[in-house]
Design brief:
CATH superfamily: Phosphoribosyl-AMP cyclohydrolase
Oligomer: single chain
Radius of gyration: 16 Å
CATH topology: Ubiquitin-like (UB roll)
Strand order of the largest sheet: 2-1-6-5-7-8
Structural class: mainly beta
Number of strands: 8
Distance between the termini: 34 Å
Shape: globular
Order of helices and strands: EEHEEEEEEH
Helix content: 10-25%
CATH class: Alpha Beta
Number of domains: 1
Strand content: 25-35%
Length: 137
């Protein structure tokens, strides 16, 4: 199975995408991706989105020069939201904070974004901190 087939696209063939800065953890932006945008992002290592207003692929920074280098592509627990961990070019990020060890995901993990794209496949890369059966009774 192609890794793109595991993504749950909406009726318009889109998926929400969140860009988060690697250095600070700041959520930088939300945009939409279609299949071609996600494939191009994985191939280029730079963020490419689907611009609904322009009706075309939008390589972030193509006009402004404020490109996003993509370090990590993650898919959430329901396979319907993408998180891009990026370096946003055009400014220097502040020092990174320390992550909390709380559980936010119904799978018992800290984050719902625990699946990472590597070598043509999605891999769970965050540990289960608590068995979901012991959380949801």
């Amino acid at each position: 199975m192609n890794w793109l087939d595991e993504v749950k696209w909406d009726a318009q063939g889109l998926i929400p995408a969140i860009a988060q800065e690697v250095g600070t953890g700041d959520v930088l932006m939300f945009a939409w991706m279609n299949r071609a945008a996600l494939a191009e992002t994985a191939s280029l290592g730079q963020a490419v989105y689907w611009s609904r207003s322009r009706g075309r692929l939008w390589h972030k920074g193509e006009a402004s020069g404020h490109f996003q280098t993509v370090h990590d592509i993650r898919l959430d627990c329901d396979n319907d939201v993408i998180l891009l961990k990026v370096t946003q070019h055009g400014h220097e990020p502040a020092a990174a904070g320390s992550p909390a060890a709380s559980i936010a995901c119904h799978t018992g993990r800290h984050s719902c974004f625990f699946q990472r794209y590597e070598n043509g496949q999605w891999h769970a890369v965050e540990p289960v901190l608590q068995d979901p059966k012991s959380i949801y009774k």
